[in-house]
Amino acid sequence: MIDLHYWTTPNGHKISICLEEMRLAYKIVPVDISKDEQFAPAFLAIAPNNKIPAIVDHAPLDHGAPLALFESGAILTYLGDKTNKFLPSNPRGRATVAQWLFWQVGGLGAMAGQLHFFQSLAPQHVPFAIARFEKEVKRIYAVLDRQLANHAFIAGTDYTIADMAVFTWAATYDMLKLRIEQYPHALRWLEKVSARPAVQRAYGIAKKINPDAPMPALFM
Ligand SMILES: N[C@@H](CCC(=O)N[C@@H](CS)C(=O)NCC(=O)O)C(=O)O
Predict the structure, then answer these.
(1) Ligand 1: which atom is nearest the Cα of residue 105?
(2) pLDDT tens digits, residue range 16-66?
(3) Ligand 1 pocket: which of 49, 51, 69, 101 to mutate (most atoms <8 Å of CB)?
(4) Which of its termini does the chain have fewer beta carbons within 10 Å around, N or C?
């Protein structure tokens, strides 16, 4: 059994999608970040960076003590290794998936998060910050669109953990006030991934846990 310490955000959805895709047994432990539950000592013992998602695998690969992990990219890679699914075992395929996974965590997710903050949450209107992050997020969507122009999925021909990671952030285009029709290859891929039963289940779970969770237009 795996405990998923989760809230209904793009980084949280990555791991619920992955667990659903892999059909692993898991239990959601909600960590409501709007109520600062990520700072509770019990959560910090698992995730010292005070951010969701985190997991505790009570039956880890090495049959040792329960394994606690934070950082979505590390969790997705661990689950790929645990199940041998959605992560190639050959070095070339693995490196390609890792490349896009790191691109998502360090680029798309970080920049989209900042853009959303300055567009919609900041107590002050800071036009320079909005312009800076909007330009960078548009550049990143253009990179995604070019990659998907000649690949069925992010890392090539197969759906992998990189698609799960990129999907949950790329799907927030309406929240980021982007015109997704400007990225037609990304839109085709977004529609294909959003229709996967495991992805539908993961967003359905989010709605049940937090009916106020912002839902991407793809799920309306
Ligand atoms: N790089 C981290 C980012 C995690 C992250 O930013 N989580 C947000 C929710 S989407 C969070 O927990 N924020 C709470 C806080 O900053 O206190 C990952 O990929 O897991």
Answers:
(1) 19
(2) 999 999 999 999 999 999 999 999 999 999 999 999 999 999 999 899 999
(3) 51
(4) C
Q: Domain extents for the chain?
A: 2-86+199-219, 91-196
In which band, very low, low, confident or very high, does the pLDDT at 69 lie, cut at 50, 70 and 90?
A: very high
Interval between CA 90 and ligand 1 midpoint (Å)? 30
* CATH architecture label of 91-196: Up-down Bundle (1.20)
Strands 26-30, 2-6: pairing kind: parallel
For residues 123 and 108, what is the distance between their CA atoms, to the nearest angstrom? 23
Ligand 1 within 6 A of CB of 97: no
CA distance 27 to 4: 6
52 Cα: distance to centroid of ligand 1 (angstroms) = 5
- Alpha-carbon Rg for the chain, nearest whole angstrom, is 17
CATH 3.40.50.300 given to domain 2-86+199-219: no
Specify the ligand 1 atom closest to the Cα of 73.
Answer: 19
Least Cα distance to 182 among 219, 216, 145, 148 occurs for: 145
Whether omega for the bond prior to residue 184 falls within 30 degrees of 0, making it cis, is: no
Rounded distance from Cα 51 to ligand 1 centre (Å)? 4
User: What is the enclosing helix (H) or strand (E) of 28?
Assistant: strand 26-30
